[in-house]
Amino acid sequence: MSGVLAIAEHRRGELRDVSDELIGAGRELADDLGEELHVAVISGQVEEFARTLSREGVDVVHTVTDGAEFNHDVYTQVTDALAAELDPTVVLLPNSVNGLDYGPAVAARLDRPLVTDVIDAEIDGDTLTATREMYGSKVETTVEVDAERTVVMIRGGEWPGASASGDAEVREAEIEIDESAVHTTVTGFEEVGGGDVDIGDAEVLVSVGRGIEEEENIELVEELADALDATLSASRPIVDSGWLPKNRQVGQSGKTVTPEVYIAIGISGAVQHVAGMKGAETIVAINTDPDAPIFDIADYGIVDDLFDVVPALIGEFEES
Ligand code: FAD
C-alpha cells in the first residue's frame, strides 16, 4: 500500500465529526495518489465504529481492540505499527486535542515530517502542498513537503464529511500492544462546569460578548438560545469574568466552531475571536457600532442595541 491511512477519533462511545472529515480529506489525497484509503479505529466499540466508518471511498477499515477511550501510548504504538505494516504515503490525523497529543510522537517514531492544523492539502507528483493558518489566523501559509512519507493533521470543519455508506473491507489488525510501554491509564471523565455541552458540535450558536455588560444580563441571551434551540457560547472576556465556563469560549485560545448559524451578540470581532468562528456557514452580528470588525465577516448585520434586538427576536421566535 502507498495510499492514505487515516486514524478515526471517538469519545465516550461516539465517533466524532472529524472522523467523517478525515475520510473526506483522505479520499481526496488518495485520489491525488491514485491509491487506497485505509481508516483505522482504535479502542472502544470498534465493530460498531467500523460499520459507520465503512463509507463510500474507504477501501479498508482496520480495527484494534484495546481499552475504551483514547490513550496516548496505545494510539502511538498502534499507529506506528499500522504505518510500518501498510507503509502509507500519508498518515492522516485530526488536529484535535487527542491528535495533537499523539501526532508528534507518531511523526517522530516514523521519522516523517509533520504538518499540523491543515485546512487544505493536495498532492502533485512528489510534493504535498498544505495550507495552514498562522498568527491567530491572520495569515495563511503554504507548506510544501516531500510527499513520499508524511503525517498530516487536519483541522475539523474544513472538509465535507463522507456521507454515503460503502462496503469497505473490515480487518481486525493483529497488533500486540506492549503493555510495559503503556504508562498512562484513562480512569474516567470528569466534566468541567458546563456539563456535556460541546460547542464544537452545535448547529446553531448564540454567542455573547462584552456588550452584554453584566453577568445577570447573560440570561437574556440564554433565553434567545433556548427559543432557537441553540447552544450558548461566548467571547473570551465573558469567560475571563467567570460568567460562563471555559468550554463555551470561541476563538484562538478557546474552541474552533463551524456551526450552520453563528449569532454574535455584542462581540466586536477581534481577530482572536474570528479565528474560532469564521468557518460558520452563516454569521449574524448584532452590534451598536457600525464599524465593528465583526460586520466585515457577517452575512447579516443588525446595527442596534442588543437590549432592544434580543427581546424582539425572542418574541418572534417564541411565537413561531
Ligand atoms: P469587545 O471587543 O469589548 O467588544 C464588545 C462589543 O460590543 C463592541 O463592538 C461594542 O460595540 C458592542 N456593544 C457594546 N454595547 C452594546 C449593545 N448594547 N448592543 C450591541 N452591541 C454592543 N477573544 C476571544 O473571544 N476568544 C479567544 O479565544 C481569544 N483568545 C485570545 C488570545 C490572545 C493571545 C489574546 C491576546 C487575546 C485573545 N482574545 C480572545 C481577546 C480578543 O483580543 C478580544 O479582546 C475579545 O475577543 C473581545 O471580546 P468582545 O468582542 O466580547 O469584547
UniProtKB/TrEMBL annotation:
<dbReference type="InterPro" id="IPR033947">
    <property type="entry name" value="ETF_alpha_N"/>
</dbReference>
<dbReference type="GO" id="GO:0050660">
    <property type="term" value="F:flavin adenine dinucleotide binding"/>
</dbReference>
<dbReference type="InterPro" id="IPR029035">
    <property type="entry name" value="DHS-like_NAD/FAD-binding_dom"/>
</dbReference>
<dbReference type="InterPro" id="IPR014731">
    <property type="entry name" value="ETF_asu_C"/>
</dbReference>
<keyword id="KW-0274">FAD</keyword>
<dbReference type="InterPro" id="IPR014729">
    <property type="entry name" value="Rossmann-like_a/b/a_fold"/>
</dbReference>
<dbReference type="InterPro" id="IPR014730">
    <property type="entry name" value="ETF_a/b_N"/>
</dbReference>
<dbReference type="InterPro" id="IPR001308">
    <property type="entry name" value="ETF_a/FixB"/>
</dbReference>
<feature type="domain" description="Electron transfer flavoprotein alpha/beta-subunit N-terminal">
    <location>
        <begin position="4"/>
        <end position="186"/>
    </location>
</feature>
<protein>
    <submittedName>
        <fullName>Electron transfer flavoprotein alpha subunit</fullName>
    </submittedName>
</protein>
<dbReference type="Pfam" id="PF01012">
    <property type="entry name" value="ETF"/>
</dbReference>
<keyword id="KW-0285">Flavoprotein</keyword>
<dbReference type="GO" id="GO:0009055">
    <property type="term" value="F:electron transfer activity"/>
</dbReference>
<dbReference type="Pfam" id="PF00766">
    <property type="entry name" value="ETF_alpha"/>
</dbReference>
<dbReference type="GO" id="GO:0033539">
    <property type="term" value="P:fatty acid beta-oxidation using acyl-CoA dehydrogenase"/>
</dbReference>
<comment type="similarity">
    <text>Belongs to the ETF alpha-subunit/FixB family.</text>
</comment>
